[in-house]
Amino acid sequence: MEFLITxxxxxxxxxxKHKTLLAPLNTAWYLFDKYYSLIxxxxxxxxxxxLHPKRCHKWLYxxxxxxxxxxxxxxxxxxxxxxxxxxxxxxxPALTASQIxxxxxxxxxxxxxxxxxxxxxxxxxxxxxxxxxxxPS
Length: 137
Fold this sequence. Notes:
This protein is mainly α. The protein has helices at residues 2-14, 19-36, 44-51, 56-63, 67-88, 97-102, 110-117, 127-132. The two termini are 20 Å apart.
């Protein structure tokens, strides 16, 4: 969507003297703006941008440098985090090594053992914030 804003602005400058092209361009801009202004009503666009490996929070913060858009970003972060946590709750936490040591009657499957050994983060870490505030890859 950010590309479309840039594109509309460039085309308006480029065709400012061509009234035949400028009228439909302005109509398209008006329609686009109608839907673009609804971004803060749903967390979908912001969540998608935050979870995109080359975007994340830093990209949105740079793109949205007005007071109004920063409010959208703040609200969008709340929507995205709530969505993240609604799905995170579905995931059953893996047993930690200390839990296994305490209960030797628990026998893990080969997959569970592999998953535990290859875990990069612990269950207590907040994956959402770690991901969206990481530098874009």
